[in-house]
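User: I'm writing a tutorial on reading structure tokens. Could you give me a worked example: one chain, its sequence, then its tokens, then a sentence or two explaining what the tokens reveal?
Assistant: Sure. Here is the example chain.
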Amino acid sequence: MAEPTSVSRRDFVKSSLVTAGAITIPAAFAGGVHAAGEEPIRLGLIGCGGRGTGAVSNAIESSPNVKIVAMADLAQSHLDGSREALRSAWEEKGNYAVTDEACFVGEDAYKHLCAHPDVDIVIQTTPPGLRFLTLREAIEQGKHSFVEKPVCVDSFGYRHVLESGKLADERGLAIVTGTQYRRENSYREAIERLHDGIIGELVGAYAYYCTGSLWLKGSEADWETWGGFGNTAYQMRNWLYFAWLSGDHIAEQAIHNLDAINWGFGGPPEVAYGSGGRLQRNDPKYGDIYDHFSIDFDYPGDKRVTFKCRQQAGAMGRVTNRFIGTKGRMDIRPAPGSSATIARDLSGKVIWNHNGRKNNNAPYVEEHRALIESIRGGDPIQEIQGVADSSLTCIIGREAAYSGQEVRFDWAADESKLKLSPDEIKLADYPVRPVPIPGTYKLV
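And here are its predicted structure tokens:
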């Protein structure tokens, strides 16, 4: 796949405003506003792991008359396991209609699914480094999209998904992404109060996504069968440990809290500077990623955010954001559907306290509800810009740590030639990159 014509973030925003008035609604939903449940919504799934299986269930739970009709994956075993789980959960309720002919396996499986005439929405839960490919294919085939976060792992992918967003606008296609904090009522209320000035003007923040170690699939016998740690089969099964597939854990996991920071500050940072490394995960089976990062992000107006993330067993966990304002501070501690918030003035007095347990529908369901209702209502949501900016925020933090240099957002968005992702999804082996060493690793 050739690299698309370069488009800057600023140019994309301007062109989107121009094309917004020229949206055409796909034939399946033409004819004006539809009442909820009037039109059937048929789902296709690309990437049949646990997140993909869960996303299908979330979509079915979100709205009446929704069913899964097609599935695609590189591995037959993944597809079979997901298919059985979905059949068991939804067949008797009438939400499962996957035939053998609508199951696709292999390198071109995603293309076959996107071309399937019965699919209205393509749920895309492949490893992050492949999502720019599936998103473009879905749009070219006239399908709406749900795409998990992050949507890209490099500068090439960032520009690519922005162009896909422009195409979606032109064709009247919806794109919703998996940044669930933005659809969690308690988190939304906290950010609204922040924007209303409850702690004054924002001047900085502290952000954390520090967790334990994550899964590793396969035994040593499996690794030998798969051809070693460098074999694509191994890399795909353990995709989070390879930067070309995951973007490193600062992108794949910690994007949630950095996206919330961008949300609070009204846009992405100007520059990143920091460090990182790997202390626990030194074995080759852990690929080429780091296990900790510490990054400073400078936002417009000389506002600084200090960010830390790590995946280390036995270390103290912390997943929270603290916003600092001229009149106080606000701490937001996320949890699925029940984020808790405390705002204090400069003296430490509590001025607002939300325990996170009121009026919260599951954000994993709400993101699909928003997507489906926008389609049925004839006003398709297209939200790729925000999650692309948050993905690139993670990327410049990663590249700053890898290189030991300062990395500017606009340079990464408009000029960087960084491309980790493949031109096509292939099962040919991809060489494992050496672990990045600051002073040796070069920015491109």
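What the tokens reveal: The chain is about 35% helix and 20% strand. The domain at 185-358+392-414 is CATH 3.30.360.10 (Dihydrodipicolinate Reductase; domain 2).
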